[in-house]
Design a protein that fits this description.
The complex is a heterodimer of chains A (about 300) and B (about 325). With about 300 residues, chain A is an alpha+beta fold. Chain A has two domains: about 1-145, no CATH class; about 210-295, no CATH class. Chain A contains nine helices and eight strands. Chain A has a three-stranded mixed β-sheet, with no helix packed on it. In chain A, strands 2-5-4 form a three-stranded antiparallel β-sheet, with no helix packed on it. In chain A, strands 3-7 form a two-stranded antiparallel ribbon. The N and C termini of chain A lie far apart (about 130 Å). In chain B, a hairpin with a 6-residue loop joins strand 3 (about 90-95) and strand 4 (about 105). Helices cover about 45% and strands about 15% of the residues of chain B. In chain B, helix 2 packs across helix 3. In chain B, the strands form five sheets. In chain B, strands 2-5-8-1-9 form a five-stranded parallel β-sheet. Classes of the chains: A alpha+beta (about 300), B alpha/beta (about 325). The interface of A and B includes residues 228, 252 and 270 of A.
């Protein structure tokens, strides 16, 4: 009988007339037609010896953790789930509905969930409402199958805990974040309090124009300046007077004004004559020293 | 100690200052102000360089050049550059003489002493390069014959910096051919008042029974205080101006600094250093000195350097101008 029902169920799966969460009592219209045909034409010939005792039910196949449905008819009353079932039970069952059939039989529509893989008789988790023996109804065989691999977690009611947990859960993590949030300003403030003042770096001011001029003037007293040194000296003298007289940053305008200046102009024109004019007799070192003497001890004055 | 007055050759100094002062005075009869531009035109004439004048219309660019040309008795021609101008319109062409059946040379306006190329950036690049080639080589080819241009030959080109639509900007390589680029500014209030007063004194120019109002061009003096041979003497005088090693070093230093400045994508070529020294020499001559001093190259730096440099994209984005960079370079020159 069981083998016959199993073959039928395979046939039904092949034809896609049922789904794995379906049951005999909940199959669709096409499935019902096929089932009816099977019931009318084939089953009576196979079940003739047992028909006198029970109306046998075929095995219902459901996927583990998915609700299956089953209809139990009995002339002795309605059935319901055993009151001592809990989440550890391999089968959980609830009554979806009850009614009195047209032939005065009690029809109990049951929903069940299988938590373990295997074949079970649903009668093990059922009781009659009147407390009578459950074997007044025939075997209600169900098969719970699993689509998962063998190593998959088996608990269908609880989410799997992560393999690695931080601390001890959500509250612990929140607590740790809160502590870190408080610690950051504490650490920053502490480090600032403990930080030593940086060592005083002696800031060396860039040499003034007068300080740049002085070595060139001294060199000029001892030896002939190179062309580069002469050019540098002259341009520094322009810059010196430009700064001293407050003529602004524009070098072109400043030099034009300087050449007409009463004091600076005379000195600068002498320098120009020394450096740029054609000479039959080059100036002596003494003449050059006299020419540059005013720049050896320059006085910081503006708008002279 | 040697002084300028002791070393200067009196005749040379006299020639230089007299020449420039007389030309400036002659021009001043027609043109009010613009003394610096007159000086730049003289520098270009004395050194054989070419001059690019930039300025808005109506500030007497053409009048000034024509007045300078008249003051030295130079042959003057003017070309208004347009988009449809052809190289043959400048240098000339071979034309068939119907009477003789022979080709004869028709010389273009380039055969002159002083050529004013008005709005040079309005002509196509082909025409620009034809003129710039003539400027460089001072000779042109018409047909199979090469002809020397008259001496002196000076091109003074103008550009309008405002109207740039439909113009062909001169590339840096061609700008480099111009010894100086000078930017003209508006006259001062008093100068402009004087310009208007002079305009009020212009009479009618009679032609037969009719007459047209005289223009400022008609007011240019016919007589020339100098002639080409005087210009030649002045050019010889410029060559006698002494340029010291220190001066050359300063000029080269300035040009080198333009090549190393971080805000400049393109610095000055060696031609810029040559132009700076030559122009300074001519300025010293005009100022009555027989040696060049740093003031000369400082005064001319903007006209010699600015059209030869190109700012980087970053500097342009920061709003930097060539003038700012040059001012910075000159301030750090030492």
């Amino acid at each position: 009988m069981n083998g016959l029902a199993t073959r039928f169920m395979r046939f039904m799966r092949f034809m896609r007339f049922t789904k794995t969460n379906g049951s005999i009592g909940s199959i669709g219209s096409i499935g019902s037609i096929a089932f009816t045909a099977w019931l009318v034409l084939i089953l009576p010939t196979r079940l003739a010896p047992a028909a006198s005792m029970f109306v046998a039910q075929d095995m219902v196949t459901v996927t583990r953790g998915i609700t299956g449905r089953l209809v139990v008819e009995s002339e002795h009353g309605f059935v319901r789930g055993r009151p001592d079932l809990n989440l550890a039970s391999p089968l959980l069952v609830r009554v979806a509905g009850v009614r009195i059939g047209p032939d005065r039989r009690h029809v109990s529509e049951l929903e069940f969930i299988g938590t373990d893989v295997g074949e079970f008789d649903l009668r093990e988790v059922l009781v009659f409402e009147d407390g009578g023996p459950i074997d007044r109804i025939g075997p209600q065989m169900i098969e719970v199958v699993s689509n998962l691999s063998a190593n998959a977690p088996s608990d269908v009611f609880l989410a799997e805990a992560p393999s690695v947990t931080i601390g001890g859960g959500y509250r612990t993590i929140l607590g740790a974040i809160g502590i870190a949030w408080l610690l950051v300003p504490v650490i920053v403030v502490t480090r600032r309090l403990l930080r030593r003042p940086p060592p005083q770096v002696e800031v060396v001011p860039p040499p003034t124009i007068a300080e740049k001029i002085a070595p060139l003037v001294e060199i000029a007293a001892t030896r002939d300046l190179t062309v580069a040194e002469q050019g540098r000296l002259e341009l520094l003298l322009y810059a010196y007077w430009q700064e001293r007289l407050g003529l602004g940053p524009d070098r072109v305008r400043a030099v034009a004004e300087l050449r007409g200046h009463l004091v600076a102009g005379r000195l600068l024109r002498s320098i120009e004559a020394w450096l740029h004019a054609p000479h039959q007799n080059p100036p002596t070192k003494r003449e050059i020293s006299d020419l540059l003497a005013p720049y050896l001890t320059p006085e910081p004055e503006r708008n002279a | 100690m040697t002084d300028r007055n002791q070393t200067a050759d009196a005749s040379t100094l006299g020639l230089g200052s007299n020449f420039s002062e007389t030309v400036a005075a002659s021009v001043a009869k027609t043109v009010v102000g613009q003394e610096v531009v007159v000086e730049r035109v003289l520098i270009a004439l004395l050194t054989g360089g070419h001059l690019l004048l930039e300025g808005v219309p109506g500030i007497a660019k053409t009048l000034l050049v024509q007045a300078v040309g008249r003051a030295i008795d130079l042959d003057f021609k003017r070309i208004q550059f347009t988009i449809d101008l052809l190289p043959s319109d400048i240098v000339g062409s071979e034309i068939l003489d119907p009477e003789t059946g022979q080709f004869r040379i028709h010389k273009g306006p380039a055969f002159t002493n002083l050529l004013l190329a008005d709005e040079i950036n309005r002509a196509s690049p082909k025409v620009q390069s034809a003129l710039l080639e003539a400027m460089q080589e001072r000779r042109v080819s018409i047909g199979d014959t090469t002809h020397d241009l008259p001496a002196p030959f000076l091109v003074i080109a103008t550009q309008n910096p405002v109207e740039q639509a439909g113009t062909f900007e001169l590339p840096e390589a061609q700008l480099d051919r111009f010894m100086l680029r000078h930017r003209l500014s508006y006259p001062t209030f008093d100068q402009e008042t004087e310009v208007v007063r002079r305009g009020l004194q212009l009479k009618l120019k009679r032609q037969g029974d009719g007459a047209v109002p005289m223009s400022a061009f008609d007011a240019i003096e016919e007589s020339s205080p100098y002639h080409i041979k005087d210009l030649t003497s002045a050019m010889e005088g410029v060559l006698q101006v002494h340029v010291s090693d220190v001066f050359v070093r300063d000029c080269v230093e300035l040009v080198t600094m333009t090549r190393n400045h971080p805000d400049l994508e393109l610095g000055c070529s060696p031609r810029a250093a040559i132009a700076l020294v030559n122009a300074s020499r001519a300025r010293a001559f005009i100022q009555g000195r027989d040696f060049a001093v740093p003031e000369d190259f400082l005064a001319l730096a903007e006209d010699v350097v600015l059209h030869r440099i190109r700012l980087t994209y970053e500097a342009l984005a920061d709003g930097r101008r060539g003038e700012d960079v040059l001012r910075e370079i000159l301030a750090n020159l030492a």
